[in-house]
């Protein structure tokens, strides 16, 4: 039985609503979780009660914790009638539960139970998971219910158990990372709850040919806006492929006669799997009676080779080989054991299989049990020795797919086989990043090396490769005061320590260390809000060894005053803010439940540009990388193929629709003896909010890359994408929430700080992912994260300027039209405008209803012309077609520049830095205007639906409400007292900031 428990420390409440008629309340808290209910003591006549009581719930099924919720209700106890009244509630999802070491006290605002509830105040809770066996679960209340009762009245006082809060609980760290990857049978059960017909285990030989024969030519998608049109070769192409779920036509899946598959977004590919487990009683092959065995699995022109063992007659390999059924050119599978030799490998024994007799295995069937097979000689006679094998035919849904050696990812037998470690498909999990805030307050008792001068001291703070210094302060009383904030980025698990050294500037370029202190990051306090962190004094250690007797005489040491914390209330930006794939804060307690699932099928690539030369011909060894949130995925590398077929499917949980999925294609340069940088072929960005729920998008995306010679198409990437909504209400609620966590608005960072911190975050992520096997290289991480998007580019500046002009083109057109009205260019139109103006002047209350109704009608009319495809990079909008070669030379120039002497270099770099800020500001202004345009363009179908419904309701309300009342209320609302203002942006602003812009189409 699991010892896992959920601990809740009920700390205190603040500013509760008075409910007893005497300006106070007698509050208590009830907690509901997994069919268990606990209650705190009653705090009489206190609007700011303090409980400091802890409770422990049993977790019956830890695997189901993700779907459980903790409901916390605050009630006022009415002594006269022994009943209770509602004061507020807090609901927490299982996603936000963290281990005890990560838990902090959070003050949650109390929520309403219904529309007419009146609540106020906050409730302080500390929620964590522990598996400490010494902790016993609390005694539940009688008549335990799985949900809180609808009737708030109580007929009798119920018993409860109270546990005092203790900070000495040593629970083990509990972390579970769940990846939704293809070979996951649980995912299949969640997506397909209905029972499927049994799978016929007979595989016809014409399966692969039948699937290819039904392919239809792709359908070209025309751009809706004429201003955004571009060459046909650079346009998006809608396709109608036959996938595992059936034929995709117009975003809908037409199911065929075949059984449904977990891989319903990719083409079903059949592989012949061979698991070589071990051998026994192998014959001796030399005079010493030993053998150096290895296994060669061969079919047709492809073979896979296991590692060899020296002098071992009972070797164990446990290695899987996968041969693509499309490339099979033989009907017999040969598994040969050989003896490793310097000149020529000796034959030991062979096992043959007829491919037509090999069984089919489809998950969730259990893995096929391996069997012992007697070895035979070349003539088929049985000889000494046995080999344990498992041979079956499966699809890419097989659990062995990701770890297997693949024939379609390797070279033919007459070439050198590629290293299997750098060609396998893998799922990576980026580390959780924290902002480290170091507030250097002051230092005391500073003793310089020279006694006849006051020290000029500063503090140098270092975490890993990140080093920052405070300003220099002259310590005239041998004490220095700074009160400076320094910000760093750190990743879990914390490997680097926080090192602070107080240094004395003796002379130009000469500094002496007065003292140093080392603080482990694992011991630093974590916070999820803007509460004050208690400061601490640290003793500074001498940097060099000192005499022990002298140390005993000196009873004091220099000290430094610090405030150090790990800020978990921020989202650590490690990618461009325009293309962020994750907006959640670091602290898991603040995470909200997911709103949907994003499924991506990476089908194939066609027409790739050769990236290398092999045997006198151009070729590529390509793989794809997809990034969303903390999860990175990498497909297997397809060797020597300009038209690779991946057919791999991956799934992510979506927490916010205003996020972007990025898919890139790279050439693997690690297969030769001298591995260089992996070359970028191109990438695709897809914003989740532009996808309709439940629709399958099958498009061929052109891979456009900007080179020093101009824009170039490197090929096309074929993808299948589906966004499935799991909580429609939560998804709509996200449109009213701030885009970033609350701390970004309460204690915002400057633009310079964000740029610096983002640079550090990308370096940390690249370093951690580079330590995986196979490594995800730094150039891949930087390209996927758009690390150079802030640098100066004349092309981007012109593109942003023309975007701005396009946004205001509507105003210019309206001004031109009004000028024509004034000039009586069309008398009939001018008379009608005069009549309309006279009506609105006589009835001003019709102005706003008419405007909103007009926008409602425009939105409904534009529904017919809504985009049916995700936005993609546009060469015309990006000004990539008309860019001057000199501007391209400037864009691809190094930073700092290498084109001119020192003086010009300094001025040129300064100009580029300033111009980069200007282009960002211009781009942001254009983004705001484009968001206005997207209100009625159905680019985000949910946002447009919300807005036109609001316009309809607003038109009706404004129609029946006097205009003077609306104007008065609007004026009073704009001039409202600061007490009635929130520290976070309002709902309309949050809704507006979530609208998509044309940043998704920028190259």
From TrEMBL:
<feature type="domain" description="C2">
    <location>
        <begin position="253"/>
        <end position="373"/>
    </location>
</feature>
<dbReference type="InterPro" id="IPR047259">
    <property type="entry name" value="QUIRKY-like"/>
</dbReference>
<dbReference type="InterPro" id="IPR047255">
    <property type="entry name" value="C2D_MCTP_PRT_plant"/>
</dbReference>
<feature type="region of interest" description="Disordered">
    <location>
        <begin position="164"/>
        <end position="200"/>
    </location>
</feature>
<dbReference type="InterPro" id="IPR000008">
    <property type="entry name" value="C2_dom"/>
</dbReference>
<dbReference type="InterPro" id="IPR047257">
    <property type="entry name" value="C2B_MCTP_PRT_plant"/>
</dbReference>
<dbReference type="InterPro" id="IPR013583">
    <property type="entry name" value="MCTP_C"/>
</dbReference>
<feature type="domain" description="C2">
    <location>
        <begin position="579"/>
        <end position="701"/>
    </location>
</feature>
<keyword id="KW-0106">Calcium</keyword>
<dbReference type="InterPro" id="IPR035892">
    <property type="entry name" value="C2_domain_sf"/>
</dbReference>
<keyword id="KW-0472">Membrane</keyword>
<dbReference type="Pfam" id="PF08372">
    <property type="entry name" value="PRT_C"/>
</dbReference>
<feature type="compositionally biased region" description="Low complexity">
    <location>
        <begin position="183"/>
        <end position="198"/>
    </location>
</feature>
<dbReference type="InterPro" id="IPR047258">
    <property type="entry name" value="C2C_MCTP_PRT_plant"/>
</dbReference>
<dbReference type="GO" id="GO:0016020">
    <property type="term" value="C:membrane"/>
</dbReference>
<feature type="transmembrane region" description="Helical">
    <location>
        <begin position="945"/>
        <end position="974"/>
    </location>
</feature>
<protein>
    <recommendedName>
        <fullName>C2 domain-containing protein</fullName>
    </recommendedName>
</protein>
<feature type="domain" description="C2">
    <location>
        <begin position="1"/>
        <end position="108"/>
    </location>
</feature>
<comment type="similarity">
    <text>Belongs to the MCTP family.</text>
</comment>
<dbReference type="Pfam" id="PF00168">
    <property type="entry name" value="C2"/>
</dbReference>
<feature type="domain" description="C2">
    <location>
        <begin position="412"/>
        <end position="538"/>
    </location>
</feature>
<comment type="function">
    <text>May function as a signaling molecule by regulating the trafficking of other regulators.</text>
</comment>
<keyword id="KW-1133">Transmembrane helix</keyword>
<keyword id="KW-0677">Repeat</keyword>
<feature type="transmembrane region" description="Helical">
    <location>
        <begin position="831"/>
        <end position="861"/>
    </location>
</feature>
<keyword id="KW-0812">Transmembrane</keyword>
């Amino acid at each position: 039985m699991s010892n896992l428990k959920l601990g809740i420390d009920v700390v205190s409440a603040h500013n509760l609503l008075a409910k007893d008629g005497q300006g106070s309340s007698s509050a208590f808290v009830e907690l509901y979780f997994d069919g268990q209910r606990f209650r705190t003591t009653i705090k009489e006549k206190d609007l700011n009660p303090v409980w400091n009581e802890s409770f422990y719930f049993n977790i019956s099924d830890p695997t189901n914790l993700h779907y459980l919720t903790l409901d916390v209700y605050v009630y006022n106890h009415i002594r006269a009638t022994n009943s209770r009244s509602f004061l507020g509630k807090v609901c927490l999802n299982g996603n936000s539960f963290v281990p005890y070491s990560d838990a902090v006290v959070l003050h949650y605002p109390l929520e309403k139970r219904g529309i007419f509830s009146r609540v106020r105040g906050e409730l302080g809770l500390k929620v964590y998971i522990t598996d400490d066996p010494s902790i016993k679960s609390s005694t539940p209340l009688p008549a335990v219910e799985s949900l809180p009762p609808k009737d708030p009245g109580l007929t009798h006082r119920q018993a409860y158990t109270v546990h005092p809060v203790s900070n000495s609980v040593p629970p083990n760290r509990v972390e579970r990372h769940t990846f939704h990857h293809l070979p996951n049978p649980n995912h299949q059960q969640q997506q397909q709850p209905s029972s499927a017909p049994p799978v016929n285990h007979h595989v016809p030989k014409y399966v692969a040919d039948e699937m290819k024969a039904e392919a239809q030519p792709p359908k070209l998608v025309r751009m809706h806006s004429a201003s955004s049109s571009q060459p046909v070769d650079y346009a998006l192409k809608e396709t109608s492929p036959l996938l595992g779920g059936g034929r995709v036509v117009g975003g809908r899946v037409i199911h065929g006669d075949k059984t449904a598959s977990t891989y319903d977004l990719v083409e079903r590919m059949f592989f012949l799997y061979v698991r070589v487990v071990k051998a026994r009683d192998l014959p001796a092959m030399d005079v010493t009676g030993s053998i150096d065995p290895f296994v060669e699995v061969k079919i047709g022109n492809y073979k896979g080779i296991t590692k060899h063992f020296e002098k071992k007659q009972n070797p164990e390999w446990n290695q899987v080989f996968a041969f693509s059924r499309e490339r099979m050119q033989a009907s017999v599978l040969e598994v040969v054991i050989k003896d490793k030799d310097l000149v020529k490998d000796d034959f030991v024994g062979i096992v043959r299989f007829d491919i037509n007799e090999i069984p089919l295995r489809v998950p969730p069937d259990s893995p096929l049990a391996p069997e012992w097979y007697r070895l035979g000689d070349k003539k088929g006679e049985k000889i000494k020795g046995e080999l344990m094998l498992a041979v079956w035919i499966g699809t890419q849904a097989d659990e062995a797919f990701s770890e297997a050696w693949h024939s379609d990812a390797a070279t033919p037998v007459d070439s050198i086989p590629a290293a299997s470690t750098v060609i396998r498909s893998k799922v990576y999990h980026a580390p959780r990043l924290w902002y480290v805030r170091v507030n250097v307050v002051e230092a005391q008792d500073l003793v310089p090396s020279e006694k006849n001068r006051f020290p000029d001291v500063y503090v140098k703070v270092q975490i890993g490769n990140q080093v920052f210094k405070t300003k220099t302060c002259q310590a005239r009383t041998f004490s220095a005061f700074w009160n400076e904030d320094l910000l760093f980025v750190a990743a879990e698990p914390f490997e680097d320590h926080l090192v602070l050294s107080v240094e004395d500037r003796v002379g130009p370029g000469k500094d002496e260390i007065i003292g140093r202190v080392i603080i482990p990051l694992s011991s630093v306090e974590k916070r999820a809000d803007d509460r004050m962190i208690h400061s601490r004094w640290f003793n500074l250690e001498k940097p060099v060894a000192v005499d022990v007797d002298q140390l005993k005489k000196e009873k004091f040491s220099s000290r430094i005053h610090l405030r150090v914390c790990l800020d978990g209330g921020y989202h650590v930006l490690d990618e461009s803010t325009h293309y962020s794939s994750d907006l959640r804060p670091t602290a898991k307690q603040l995470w909200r439940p997911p709103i949907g699932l994003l499924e991506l099928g990476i089908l194939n690539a066609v027409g790739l540009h050769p990236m290398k030369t092999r045997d006198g011909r151009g070729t590529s060894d390509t793989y794809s990388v997809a990034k969303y949130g903390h999860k990175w995925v990498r497909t297997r590398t397809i060797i020597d193929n300009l038209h690779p077929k991946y057919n791999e499917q991956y799934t992510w949980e979506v927490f916010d629709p205003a996020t972007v999925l990025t898919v890139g294609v790279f050439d693997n340069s690690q297969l030769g003896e001298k591995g260089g940088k992996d070359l970028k072929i191109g990438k695709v960005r897809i914003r989740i909010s532009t996808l309709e729920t439940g629709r399958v998008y099958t498009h061929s995306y052109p891979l456009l890359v900007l080179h020093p010679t101009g824009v170039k198409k490197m090929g096309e990437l074929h993808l299948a994408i589906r966004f499935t909504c799991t909580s429609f209400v939560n998804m709509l609620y996200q449109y009213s929430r701030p885009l970033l966590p609350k701390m970004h608005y309460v204690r915002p960072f400057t633009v310079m700080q964000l740029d610096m911190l983002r640079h550090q975050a990308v370096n940390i992520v690249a370093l951690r992912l580079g330590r995986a096997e196979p490594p995800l290289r730094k150039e891949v991480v930087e390209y996927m994260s758009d690390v150079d998007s802030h640098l100066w580019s004349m092309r981007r500046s012109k593109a942003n300027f023309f975007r701005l002009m396009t946004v205001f083109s509507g105003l210019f057109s309206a001004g031109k039209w009004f000028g024509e009205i004034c000039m009586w260019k069309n008398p009939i139109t001018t008379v009608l405008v005069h009549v309309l103006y006279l009506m609105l002047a006589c009835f001003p209350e019709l102005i706003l209803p008419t405007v909103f109704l007009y926008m409602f009608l425009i939105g409904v009319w534009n529904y017919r012309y809504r985009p049916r495809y995700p936005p993609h990079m546009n060469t015309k909008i990006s000004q990539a077609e008309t860019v001057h070669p000199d501007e391209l030379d400037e864009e691809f120039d190094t930073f700092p520049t290498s084109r001119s002497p020192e003086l010009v270099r300094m001025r040129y770099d300064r100009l580029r830095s300033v111009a980069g800020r200007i282009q960002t500001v211009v781009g942001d202004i254009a983004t705001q205007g484009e968001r206005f345009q997207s209100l009625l363009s159905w680019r985000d179908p949910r946002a447009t639906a919300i807005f036109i419904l609001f316009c309809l309701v607003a038109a009706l309300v404004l129609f029946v409400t006097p205009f003077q009342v609306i104007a008065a209320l609007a004026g009073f609302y704009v001039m409202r007292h600061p007490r009635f203002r929130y520290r976070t942006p309002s709902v309309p602003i949050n809704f507006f900031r979530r609208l998509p812009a044309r940043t998704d189409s920028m190259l």
